[in-house]
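can u pls check wat happens w/ cytidine-5'-monophosphate
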Amino acid sequence: MSTPMDLAGKHIVLGLSGGIACYKAADFTRELVKAGATVQVVMTEAAEQFITPVTLQALSNRSVYTSQWDAREPNAMAHINLTRDADAVVIAPASADLMAKLAQGRADDLLSLMCLARPLLSCPLLLAPAMNREMWAHPATQRNVAQLRADGTLVLGPGNGDQACGEIGDGRMLEPAELFAELVAFFQPKVLRGKRVLISAGPTFEPIDPVRGITNHSSGKMGFAIARAAAEAGASVMLIAGPVHLPTPRNVRRIDVTTARQMFDAVTGAASAHDVFIATAAVADWRPASFNDHKIKKQPGEKSPPSLELTENPDILAAVARLPAAPYCVGFAAESHDLLKHAREKRVRKGVPLIVANLGPATFGQDDNALTLVDANGERELPRADKLTLARQLVAEIAARLGAKA
Ligand code: C5P
């Protein structure tokens, strides 16, 4: 998916403490720079044992700071100056030792000194722990992590899996792409904090026989982008996905289904426990009336092809909108012509407050889209943009409508 310059204008101070995960910091730096951030790297002496400042200087395009005695700063106060224009300090990897120091407010090297001297209100601290599983599980580390959280630090991960030492467990640093997604999410406005959002996405597949079926070109990209945007906005998100080949966005619970009826069961079972339902799925309107247990074979000399009897699928969105404890329902209208007319009619027919209209052939499988929001007050255009940008705008629009309703 084409991504927006998610960190344009942001200045990030990236701290590295000692650990083998230092090698991941190189890729992470690249991701930050590619997304438009300026990156100032600060390394501890131990970090320099794992990766050189030259590597990080080349990737960040700025010389790296490693010592509180650095004479480059005119006032000799690198520990103060470095965070004054920073939007965040991210420490990746954060070693057990560094976290112990920060928890105690010790300041015997540039990185810990800088963290203690940073302006608490304008410069948040994010840590990506990286260590052996026993070190992570140790009561001393857990005590330090709890203290750091209580002090307002955001702890990213750690992940779980194979460790450089050969052991398996909790303590791996998150991958650069995961750290990047967490940081981008951190900067998004939390307009859906505390809300529960249910989303249907992708096509459905209606089997004819064991090898054939009826489906459509929906890629699921719009629905997955909305799930990511809602999670970034602080919502707890459940995504009911038809058959698609997309990774699950971070912090989203996903349930995979195949047919419209499976999607109906999954969505209606969960709907009442949610504040918002966004129906982006391109649900097949009809399914074969019967399923052939065996592949329908072409017979030699057959004059006419077999006929396929269809029956209607349940309308998931309309059913949810009719529930006594219905969430705020948002429908999608993918049309090939007369977009607005169909969208207005659909809004009334399905009994939902908001319909998002788009041109089917111009959106299916594409990374970009353009949306028109249709509600009781009229229409609003969200001009062509990548789907994640549109998803964030749609989330803000929904949040504003929820606020108005409350
Ligand atoms: O009626 P139509 O398929 O054009 O309506 C599209 C909207 O209704 C989308 O939001 C889609 O997810 C939802 N829908 C549904 N169940 C169906 C058909 C459509 O939830 N069976």
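The chain has two domains: 11-187, 196-293+301-405.
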